[in-house]
Write a structure and sequence with these properties.
With about 230 residues, the chain is α+β, with helices and mostly antiparallel strands. The strands form 2 sheets. It has an 8-stranded mixed β-sheet. It has a two-stranded antiparallel ribbon with strand order 3-4. Strand 3 and strand 4 form a beta hairpin. The radius of gyration is 19 Å and the shape is globular. The protein starts with a helix and ends with a helix.
């Protein structure tokens, strides 16, 4: 029985790696398998494991081995350019639309709180769908480029700049959402992101998302007030 359980766990791990580029730690995988019925089909086990990993803090659930993480000196601004082969899974800690003023970003956050998004110049009601949940985002269309604060399984944080529009990236996307980077370029300590090298896996960490929305709006309003005071 133990041998069969170990074999099934190995199969789940292999499926997660090949299909989603997720490499859970052995400790996490063992704990997960202990909560599942041995009769559950492999596809269902893999789907459940994937959902839980995408909703987790990857610094506690994914392998921090070198091939799956950013280089330790990724922030080195002396490095003009380097190729990051990956795949590297990263989680979203924050996002900024560099095309919008501070007030426009506050208004965008408040619109999302009211359940509204934008499509061009038109305000629309946003409803959650399966597709939204899978992408980890109910986003404001348009805008950008975006600046993303990202973190790998080792806990290394880095900024990414959206060079070309990536579907699903926007102010309304979920904090904790997971990305996979493959064959990306790091330049002067920043990741250069585009559709060819950046894929959204989805996911959301609810507590992080709530805290970010509250803190981000407060930070923007404080910056606006400070700017107005200095202009007087």
């Amino acid at each position: 029985m133990a041998s069969s359980s170990t074999q099934l766990a190995a199969q789940v791990g292999s499926q997660l790696a090949s299909i989603r580029n997720l490499h859970p730690t052995q400790q996490w995988l063992t704990a997960f398998m202990n909560t599942q019925k041995s009769t559950t089909p492999l596809p269902a086990l893999t789907q459940t494991a994937s959902f839980r990993l995408l909703s987790s803090d990857i610094t506690t659930t994914l392998s921090a081995d070198a091939p799956h993480c950013l280089p330790p000196d990724v922030h080195n601004t002396e490095v003009k350019e380097r190729r990051l082969l990956g795949p590297i899974v990263l989680q979203l800690l924050g996002i900024e639309d560099m095309s919008k003023s501070r007030w426009e970003q506050v208004e965008a956050i408040e619109a999302l709180e009211r359940g509204e998004g934008t499509k061009g110049r038109e305000i629309i009601r946003v409803t959650n769908t399966t597709e939204d949940d899978d992408s980890g985002a109910t986003v404001n269309k348009g805008g950008g480029p975006h600046k993303l604060s990202l973190q790998d399984a080792r806990g290394t944080r880095v900024f990414g700049i959206e060079l070309q529009e990536i579907k699903g990236v926007g102010l309304g996307m979920s904090i904790g959402c997971k990305f996979v980077l493959k064959n990306a370029v790091g330049a002067r300590g920043v990741l250069l992101m585009e559709p060819a090298n950046s894929t959204i896996l989805g996911g959301k960490i609810e507590a992080w998302h709530k805290a970010w929305k509250e803190n981000r709006k407060a930070e923007l309003k404080a910056a606006i007030e400070a700017s107005e005071r200095s202009a007087r």
